[in-house]
Amino acid sequence: MVMSKVAAMIGGDAIIGEAALIQRQHARRPQRWLKVAKIYNEFEEECATSNEKLKQIADAMTMEMHAGLASEDGSKLKMLVSYVENLPTGDEEGVYYALDLGGTNFRVLRVQLAGKSGIKSQEFVEVPIPPQLMVGTKQELFDYIATELAKFVGDESDKFHLRPGRQRELGFTFSFPVMQLSIASGTLMRWTKGFSIDDMVGQDVVSELTQAMKRKGIDMHVSALVNDTVGTLARGRYDNNDVAIAVIMGTGTNAAYVEQAQGIPKWHGPPPKSGEMVINMEWGNFSSSHLPLTGYDTALDIESLNPGQQMYEKMISGMYLGEILRRVLLRMADGAALFGDTIPPKLKTPFVLRTPEMSAMHHDTSKDLRVVRHKLKDILEICNTSLKTRKLIVELCNVIATRGARLTAAGILGILKKTGRDIAKNGETPKTVIAMDGGLYEHYTEYRKHLENTLHELVGDELAECIKLVHSNDGSGIGAALLTASHSRYLAIDGS
User: Fold this and answer.
1) How far is CA 313 from the centre of its chain?
2) Could you give the count of Cα atoms lying within 13 Å of 210 in the half-sphere of its Cβ?
3) Sheet containing 220-226: order of strands
4) What values do phi and psi take at 473, rounded to 5?
5) Extended strands (E) in 143-296
6) Nearest Cα to Cα of residue 96 among 120, 116, 74
7) DSSP 3-state of 338
8) Catalytic pick from 75, 107, 168, 228?
9) Under a CB-based contact definition with an 8 Å cutoff, are residues 312 and 290 in contact?
10) Which one of 35, 64, 80, 305 has the minimum C-beta count within 10 Å?
């Protein structure tokens, strides 16, 4: 009986204690949300991008473009001369090949062009690169690539056989930092994306590929060394002669555009016959005091592999948007107990929250935001979130995506200003088509809408009628093949 009374007393104390705990938790909840709101409001304010601020950023972009074109070290923008002076016209004919090397896989493509009828056929194979070859020797890597290229060519039908005395021609998309020396040569500056082949750095990548093809018995000539953004411009121009700018919005970001030859003071080579040259901006490295940097951006930059570099890219591209969201949520969890009294351990892991997941949460239209709930549970192991919390996360996604999209629009306006496409000439406004590519632009619908709407706001209704953004797919593959066609060694012979 005594034992029962003690148990009852303990049970009673436990119930009273639990009730008190619940009361304290309820009392803390409004306080918690006040702290969350303060963090959110500060972040939203710091991310603000008024049209006036965006125009200042556009002007800064234009100034940096001028500086980068004047001298090699004149700007954070490299403004690289691509040596592409002949973009596709749509009249190209013949069979051309492309090799696209930019990550842990590479692709080999064959594209058959039929003049005004367009692309008659296209085929490709994708091949994984064994991890050991990513850190081996240059001969091992290029011999492996050449072997797969030989298989691809060896399996093709008779209809692709060339006329006697002709070599197959290849465009080589090499998506690593390269100092371009001509349309078909360039030296590797450094490896990225997990590659580390020391004996390749400082070497001509086209020369290494050519030697490997010879060793494997492939009779093929590399006619163009291509950057993927320049390839996107070529792909767009093939379909539409008004394409003058290309922008990639994916994991990373970059832009390329057509510049007048006299607008490149640092160019000391022979003047291009076309009077034009494609410039690879490498605009991810753009920086300006007008950029709306937050403490989260600064911390992300300091902890990155390249502190002080690619600030623009770190604010607008797919590699970083999800990480910015994670950092804000971590601050709310730590400073305002957003997810309870303990910080969810997974939330402390850098880059655990990827932009595709952020996009999925941003686009969640279900009444109870179940996509947000599932993502939090599956990725961050955060369970039992309130609808209020999930709504907050969607709002954060919107703030981050809106800022990125509006800053991208400002960059595009900077290019329009530099090329004089933001004003009417002789009473007539030039038509400008901007070729867009990359997963962020293609799949993150809200981001794309904000980008397009902001550009419209910045240029005004009248000019917006003359500016169009179009999705130009596979610049790194088909674009490279098209540039091979427009720079073919047989153009003079064929009278094209």
Assistant:
1) 8
2) 16
3) 119-128, 105-114, 93-101, 168-174, 220-226
4) -85, 140
5) 168-174, 178-182, 185-188, 220-226, 243-249, 253-260, 276-280
6) 120
7) coil
8) 228
9) no
10) 305
Q: What backbone torsions phi and psi does residue 54 show, to the nearest 5 degrees?
A: -65, -35
Query: Count H helices, E strands: the chain?
Result: 15, 13
> What are the backbone dihedrals phi and psi of residue 9, each rounded to the nearest 5 degrees, phi first?
-65, -45
**Euclidean distance between CA atoms 471 and 63, whole angstroms:** 28
Q: Is 198 annotated as catalytic?
A: no
User: Does 228 qualify as catalytic in the annotation?
Assistant: yes
More confident residue, 273 or 399: 399
Q: Are 75 and 62 in contact (CB under 8 A)?
A: no
DSSP class of 411: H
Which residue matches tokens 């962020």?
440
433 burial (CB, 10 Å; 0-12 / 13-18 / 19+) is: buried
Cα separation, 121 vs 480, in Å, equals 15
Annotated catalytic residue within 175, 223, 472, 486: 175
Within 10 Å of residue 132's Cβ, how many Cβ atoms?
Answer: 8
Question: Which of 360, 373, 348, 431 shows the shortest CA–CA distance to 401?
Answer: 360
The 10s digit of each residue's pLDDT in 329-378 is 999 999 999 999 999 999 999 999 999 999 999 999 999 999 999 999 99
Phi-psi region for residue 381, left (φ > 0), alpha (ψ -120 to 50) or beta? left
Count of positions (residues) in the chain: 496
CA 261 from centre of chain: 27
Q: What is the pTM of this model?
A: 0.88
24, 190, 215, 370: the catalytic one is 190
C-beta separation of 466 from 429 below 8 A? yes
| Per-residue buried b or exposed e for 269-278, using 16+ beta carbons within 10 Å of the residue's own CB | eeebeeebbb
Interatomic CA distance for residues 126 and 137, integer angstroms? 22
Residue 294 scores a pLDDT above 50: yes
Neighbours of 190 (CB within 10 A): 11
